[in-house]
Design goal:
Helix 1 packs across helix 5. The protein is built from 6 helices and 12 strands. A hairpin with a 4-residue loop joins strand 9 and strand 10. The longest helix is centred in the last third of the chain and has 19 residues. It is of the alpha+beta class and about 290 residues long. The chain has one domain: Alpha-Beta Complex (paralog of FGE (formylglycine-generating enzyme)).
Length: about 290
């Protein structure tokens, strides 16, 4: 019985046979705008966050439950109200700065760009920064959780030291209860807004973050004593937290670490404050001056 569960879990991730592959392709509607419009942003006031750490944790060689962390954000966070639209992403494609969207992905100003990799999201952020003169980037996992507020899901499961496999089985059973077969790219607003006014969090689009997958070793008190980061795998946040290989565009065909894969991969960006950009420019100028002297 246990072997069957493990096999089913492995196949769901490695081959993407958990169900979402058997769906109709998205409809293409090429209605991209001719020019780029500055993205609508929400500024979230400074505050504190208590959330479940991401990654994999062990203690004394055995699986351990991820610890709860407390974080304080001293500065406001400016983040896109909506995910990046497929039409705006198409403008980046037109400038030869982004890879084309997969065939069948809806292209419209009111639909998110989906089936994009972490590298695609990075390329778009760099292009948008050049176009606008502002600095845009992917949020960290912590920033995403802070912005998501009540939409952030603590998907931790208890760890049974005597039988660690129970945790994986429980996760699979819990995720199997979710309907992830709906992969349509809906108009913005389909999944509502959170208390900050951000749209479509934890809907059927998982959003890339800049955070790497990290394996951590804890001591007996729960303090991290050693970490190993794998930045070839990034954290995507949505209806549950997912760890996805950075070049994967469609996680339904593989690329997740465990559990059911994300239905869609998309993203929204954070805009750095002008003071940060100016401060960075000043520091770079000073460094160059020192290097020349």
């Amino acid at each position: 019985m246990l072997i069957a569960f493990k096999l089913k879990l492995a196949l769901a991730c490695a081959a993407g046979v958990a169900g979402p592959l058997a769906v109709a392709p998205l409809v293409t509607e090429v209605t991209a705008p001719a020019t780029l419009v500055a993205p609508a942003l929400v500024e979230i006031s400074s505050g504190s966050l208590s959330y479940r750490a991401s990654g994999d944790f062990t203690r004394a060689g055995k699986q351990a439950e991820a610890p709860m962390l407390s974080r304080h954000f001293a500065e406001p966070l400016a983040i896109m109200r909506h995910q990046v639209s497929s039409a705006d992403y198409q403008l980046c494609v037109g400038d030869s700065a982004c890879h084309a969207l997969d065939r069948g992905v809806t292209v419209a100003p009111d639909r998110p760009a989906v089936q994009v990799s972490w590298h695609d999201a990075q390329a778009y952020a760099a292009w948008l920064s050049r176009k606008t003169g502002d600095h845009y980037r992917l949020p960290t996992d912590e920033e995403w959780a802070f912005a998501a507020g009540s939409r952030f899901k603590d998907d931790a499961l208890p760890v049974d030291a005597s039988d660690p496999a129970k945790r994986w089985i429980s996760r699979y059973e819990r995720e199997s209860d979710r309907d992830l077969s709906d992969t349509a790219a809906y108009p913005f607003g389909k999944f509502g807004t959170n208390e900050h006014g951000l749209s479509d969090l934890s809907g059927n689009v998982w959003e890339w973050t800049s955070s790497c997958f990290v394996r951590s070793v804890l001591d007996e008190t729960g303090k991290t004593i050693r970490e190993s980061a794998n930045c070839g795998v990034r954290i995507a946040e949505g209806a549950h937290r997912a760890y996805v290989t950075d070049f994967i565009r469609d996680a339904r065909a593989g690329g997740c670490a465990a559990g059911l894969p994300p239905a869609n991969l998309g993203f929204r960006l954070v805009r750095e404050p002008k003071s940060w950009v100016g401060g960075l420019s000043g520091r770079l100028s000073k460094a160059l001056s020192v290097a020349r002297s």
